[in-house]
Amino acid sequence: MNMKKRVIILAIIFSIITSALIYLYLNSVDVPAVSVAVNKTEVVVAANTIPENVIITGEMLTVMSLPTDGVHGDAARTVEEVVGFLSKNEIIAGEQVLKSRVATDLTSSSLAYRIPEGMRAMTLSSNEISGVAGFIAVGDKVDILVSYTDMEALGQGLQITTQFQNVEVVAKGPAVSGATGGQSDTGVSSSLTLLVTPDDAQKLVYAAASGSINMTLRNPVDTKILELPGYGMDAFEGLEEEVE
């Protein structure tokens, strides 16, 4: 074996020995683990997919601790912020529950979200006489009087009845135009939207089609329902005899 080959073999041997020694050294050294502190925030997420337009319950939600940088600014932090309210859109399982996608602020939500379950919103035409000169405001309660003019065709004359009592006003239409094309000085709305049952909605449509409607404004603390008889020509029977 010549000198050149011996040098190469020795170099390879020393290289293997050096590598082994380095490997053994590195394994004997304790390298401290590097830990990075991550700030986390608790956020409400959907435990399962929440359909659109349903009442959100606690079973639909869970609270997770997520990195703060990944938490949406509009996400609910506690379940109490969204439980009991309507979902405006579908919320996918695992998705952060955004308050903007839940009808939490009913005053700023569309009218549909403010209608209690089992009730309906219905709009009636209004003018200065039937609408109490524009003094009816949203949230007020009114009684509805119906003048059934079609009763005259049956020979019974005009009949007036207080058909609905303590009905809530949930919205007002735009003010009617005055003679100059601007809004009326009285602020009288062209329509009033009422909260009624489905059955009362049918009766109101019939009343509007069969006669004319007037409203009376109630005191907020007066919620008593009165038994009122209808009023018509028969109320004047015997009046002449009494006068005589």
UniProtKB/TrEMBL annotation:
Keyword entries, A-Z: Membrane, Transmembrane, Transmembrane helix
Domain SAF per the UniProt entry, residue ranges: 41-103
InterPro entries the record matches: Pilus_assmbl_Flp-typ_CpaB, RcpC_dom, SAF
Pfam families for this protein: RcpC (PF16976), SAF (PF08666)
Domain of life: Bacteria
Ranges that cross the membrane: 7-26
Name recorded for this polypeptide: Flp pilus assembly protein CpaB
UniProt source species: Proteiniclasticum aestuarii
